[in-house]
């Protein structure tokens, strides 16, 4: 661990992006704490889609629980808590940051923000999430091939998603639920040229089958229309309390601006996953988490020592290596994945 800090890295958020960052920083010999307030979009998943090697039988909670156990097994600390603020301890990134939670205070060298966002939910009546109410077209469109589907929303996003769904099924309704459409004239013309039914009446009731899946919606004009599922398109609310406190640069849509390595406009603070621009997908989030973790490792690793550092610190001695904390060293040697695990009969 770097002198003067409680941890080398604090990861704020325990979803796929944050846990992957922690996996990399911990396995790359940096003392890491994950501070997770719980919940999140991944935790809502009834089934996991589009993650190679993980089947649909795995729920979001099961995926996250396995991930937490993995990073803890490598030596990271995973704490339940709400991060109230992150404050720079000086002008330079190497001065570190103070991370304040609702119960603890940590001095850390680097911070990874992985707090994500929450999808805005439409008003009820609604089917259960994952049983007719779905927030990820890229994840779930496959489920509705040749099935009747709906899109809720009266804006550009809703109109375009309705037209995109025609790639998967010929039975698509766009439900404005009594709202006046706000899409452009160009989009209105596009809708006219696509076989999408725009239903303007508000929903007054819902019917589910014996398995709890959506079966149909009832409308105030007396219609009953059958659906296997659909997608609400009302935007997102970013979990950005810490972002606002640090005055980090944002994009036009409210996401956190980052470079190719996840670095934000505040040196030493990284952002990954749904908090950043791009596709809100677990594999993408994992990739961003991995890149940030590797980048932080390169910034903080002790060796090779530069020629400039030799002038002030001298040559590397036997006492200087290896450059990881005693706790992480012990955990690594005892881990099943170590080259000479205690469970390996050849080491006994």
TrEMBL record:
Listed EC numbers: 1.8.1.9
SUPFAM superfamilies per record: FAD/NAD(P)-binding domain
Keywords per UniProt: Flavoprotein, Oxidoreductase
Class in the EC hierarchy, top level: oxidoreductase
All copies of domain FAD/NAD(P)-binding, residue ranges: 7-289
Xref: InterPro entries: FAD/NAD-bd_sf (IPR036188), FAD/NAD-binding_dom (IPR023753), Ferredoxin-NADP_redctase_2 (IPR050097)
Pfam families recorded: Pyr_redox_2
Domain of life: Archaea
One Gene Ontology term of the molecular function aspect: thioredoxin-disulfide reductase (NADPH) activity
Protein's name in the database: FAD-dependent pyridine nucleotide-disulfide oxidoreductase
Native source organism of the sequence: Natrialba magadii (strain ATCC 43099 / DSM 3394 / CCM 3739 / CIP 104546 / IAM 13178 / JCM 8861 / NBRC 102185 / NCIMB 2190 / MS3) (Natronobacterium magadii)
Taxonomic lineage from the root: Archaea, Methanobacteriati, Methanobacteriota, Stenosarchaea group, Halobacteria
